[in-house]
UniProtKB/TrEMBL annotation:
Domain DUF7065 residues, every copy: 14-189
Species per Swiss-Prot/TrEMBL record: Streptosporangium subroseum
Domain DUF7064 intervals: 191-310
Name recorded for this polypeptide: Hydroxyneurosporene synthase (CrtC)
Stored InterPro entries: DUF7064, DUF7065
Amino acid sequence: MVKIVDHGTWPLRDEDEGAHPVGVEPLWSESVYLDFTTQDGSIAGYIRLGLYPNWNRAWYWACLVGKDRQTVLLADNHATLPGPDLVVKGEGYRATHEVTLPMRSFRLTLNAEAAAVLDDPAQAYADTAGARTTSLEFDLEWKTVGGVYPYGFIPRYEIPCEVAGVIRVGDEEIPFSGHGERDHSWGERDWWQVSWLWSSGRLDDGTFFHGMRANVGFEMPWPCFTVPPDGVLDHREGFTATSEFGENGFPVQSWLAVPGAPLTVVPVSFAPVAMTSPDGAIAHFPRALCRFEAADGRSGHGWTEWHQPPGWRGHEWR
């Protein structure tokens, strides 16, 4: 039986894998993330479906990256809201999202005729209409490893997973086997107000980890967990992070204070997106496949995001 860590202020049930009642806030949203990477970081990607019913749209992002690979990116911030079946259809693409066993497994398929091939990932912040394109297909399944982790202060849960399936990009077919994380959240989220860092990965001894902190102007017991090789999810608090940024606001390096596993984070390949608010404000989202180096010599790969709303450099990244 999959263990659900019980420390939240709200109960988590199998039914939470489905859709939730829509709130009245204009920026109320429901979000599903799915990411994946091989252990060596040679192939990786992520998918995000964000539903904005009070804004009458969905966001759909999907990408493929890897060491020595160009970023392949599909980013549609004007997608039609899908129905309860979460079948997303946009210009030249179709995607399905299915909880095959609540809290235990999830299957994704994507068939995109023309994802952008980016020579420079920063192109994602501009119009990619003139970029070279390629077809992109995913047929992947996420299977839970170690347990389910609900946040204690917002309705959100994270699930470390083994990931397997098939990827096709252009004429290349890639049998995939690796690891990743999926999460599900709902409630009001204003992407144009607060910066944050979110990170998850797996080290070469089999240890999964996750941590998140937002820059809200005061300290909190920011959430994190590890899943050691014995498979028992260990929830802790006290996650902190510091980051150094370079050109285009892309992070150069970060240092994560995961209790019991301090980590150095080096971005390997970026798949960023930009988001425009209803009143025209622009936020940047440099998400990246990263290599993690633990202080004790372990290493691994996973994903990190450094969300950057307008004026983000005025926020404290410590």
